Amino acid sequence: MAETSTTTSFINGSSSIASLATDHLFTILLLLPMDSILYFAMTCKKFRYLATSDILWESVCRRDWGNTAVDALKSSFHDDEQRRLIPWITLYKQVSRVDSVCCYKLAEPDPDLILPVPRASHSLNFVSGCLVLFGGGYEGGRDLDDTWAVYIGNNSQNMLKWQKIQTGTPSGRFGHTCVVIENYLVLFGGINERGDRHSDTWLGQVSLHENLGISLSWQLLDVGSTSPPPRGAHAACCISSRKMVIHGGIGLNGVRLDDTWIIELSENRCYGTWRKIVSHPSPPARSGHSLTCISETQTILFGGRGLGYEVLNDIWVLHVTEGYSKWVQIFYELQNIPAGVSLPRVGHSATSIIGGRLLIHGGEDSLRHRKDDFWVLDISHISLEKMHPTRLNSKRMLANKWRRLKPEGYKPGCRSFHRACVDDSGRYLYVFGGMVDGLLQPAEPVGLRFDGELFLVELVLQL
């Protein structure tokens, strides 16, 4: 009887939750996932108005996407009136259900301008409104030591004018990693044309000048006596405002590595401290894989080439909090994923896009067939810190987390060992270079060539 009375009072609007102030209800709703907020909206007219309001859903978007992405997305609309015609709840649903991408060829209007030479295994980053390209490998096994930059700003489809801004520092290399931490670039390792592996750590800062264009200053970071062994073809990503994690790669004598390291930068960015992460289990040795941060505490490792030269398709998540680090493998079966047979790959790009998802593009399989497909992997709602590893071993668990996107517009070629990065909105992806199929000579069979194309990939929202 008491339970019936409580239920009736809730329906009649006399419950304690119905009497809460609007700002208190907002605070409660912002703790809930999207589906729970929508269920809450179905309870009564008052709650429907509150739980579908534009103010609430902009806050939900900021919670789940971050302020930078939301502000960049708002600026992409022509004016405030156009933005107001599209409710934030609609934007949120569209981002959650995105199923296609549109590619654009970014043509250079002036053929007399000097452009970056074709390359692979370079680095490409979006920082301070600019694309920054460094190094890579070129024909004949040569390394490159050049740095190029182009200002993008808020216009994703600008005609781009590359500016060569640095040569010689850091030294020439390919297979290195370079990540963005706040407005800084952090570069580690790589291989030069003599086959030497590096273990140096560099800090770069981009500056914009009204008359002089773009400048970039690099400095060798002081890391003390402890640093990871030399390597190239490893993977890296930032995991907070001051930390970067690296894993695996090809070390001395061509040995593939399985170690994980984290560097924490000092507050003044003058030095950094490396430490090795020990976790059991942990990902086996590999190279050419990807490591991508999807939240402040979670990083996804995918694919690569293993010790036996096999191409991998396993997924590992590194969970990092203060004083605690753990690798967890998430199992799945390819046959449970539509067209999943194409998933194992090496030399792909894996980029965090709006909504905390992973956009995987290109790469090559065990037969060195290069790919031009786009996949989204969404494990953003798996709370690893609350789950025991054995609970993540359901092989069907990720079947609905993989989604192959339909490509539209320009059709770039199949490629591997290219590089990709997103702008601040997380909706626009820039892809440059890589190894592509090509004729060595008109009468010879298909071979490989280095590519120098830059193209844009837009997540298509049905607005």
TrEMBL record:
Name of a matching Pfam family: F-box
Entry keyword Kinase: no
Signal peptide segment: none
Keyword check for Membrane: no
F-box domain boundaries: 14-60
InterPro entries: F-box-like_dom_sf, F-box_dom, Gal_Oxase/kelch_b-propeller, Kelch-typ_b-propeller
SUPFAM superfamilies: F-box domain (SSF81383), Galactose oxidase, central domain (SSF50965), Kelch motif (SSF117281)
The entry's keywords: Kelch repeat
Family annotation (PROSITE patterns): FBOX
PANTHER family, per database record: BACTERIOOPSIN TRANSCRIPTIONAL ACTIVATOR (PTHR46175)
Entry protein name: F-box domain-containing protein
Organism, scientific name: Gossypium tomentosum
